[in-house]
């Protein structure tokens, strides 16, 4: 999102992903020209209610005061809307999008922060160029920034889970052949359709996938059909599940039985360089935070 503050420590960054269920925190360090994961932790909401100082203690124990911080919004704090891009210059896009989306969001757009995700030129072969408008509740964004500052951190970036995921998964989708990225979350899963490292389609699955696995299959099939028939892209032949899923899990077995595509799950340990190995449970809680911490761009978008 659009705000910039002077960087204090240039060794990496801290990323906070705060949801109703708990807070994930990931810390990267700059080693040469690359970012590596240094710390990763998850504090559930029950523990935090009993001991609100857990995150502050973590920051103090790991000498993170003054570190640059990325903040990842949760689903209740923003909306993502696909719309035709206004015919304006890039620096005028946010203002122009305001007029297009002001009647479509579920909160007062007068108090909204607006950004956008540019889509590839061939993302809509029948109409003009399209973008995803990102509309965030400004009050909730400010509250997150204030929380980071109260913890002694230096917030430099606010982003959404969809863009955070792209920091790590874009390179996994470098082929022309389409790849479906399915980020699984008990409350709200994300489905991204990728080709040549670029996102063409994003969908939100607003149900608990554990209770509705047949619905996941149907949403995947419909999205992949749309990607091929309406966007004119090569078929999606791979489905990557995030965070890491056990090979014998119900969701892996269901997808393999019903999808005509290669189904695999991503182990963060094979994807990143980290000081310690991350078990499946930690990956499932902290995947988004790790993606945000390993954002290679050290400056907030202007």
Would you mind describing this structure in some detail?
- With about 300 residues, this protein is an alpha/beta fold.
- The protein folds into three domains: about 10-75 and about 140-165 and about 275-295, Nucleotidyltransferase, domain 5 (2-Layer Sandwich), CATH 3.30.420.40; about 75-140, Dna Ligase, domain 1; about 170-265, Nucleotidyltransferase, domain 5 (2-Layer Sandwich).
- The chain has nine helices and 13 strands.
- It has helices at about 45-50, 55-60, 95-100, 140-150, 160-170, 215-230, 250-260, 270, 280-295, and strands at about 10-20, 20-30, 35-45, 65-70, 80-85, 110-120, 130-135, 155-160, 180-185, 190-195, 200-205, 235-240, 260-265.
- The strands form three sheets. It has a five-stranded mixed sheet.
- A hairpin with a 2-residue loop joins strand 10 (about 190-195) and strand 11 (about 200-205).
- The protein is globular and about 55 Å long.
- It starts with 8 loop residues before the first strand and ends in a 9-residue tail after the last helix.
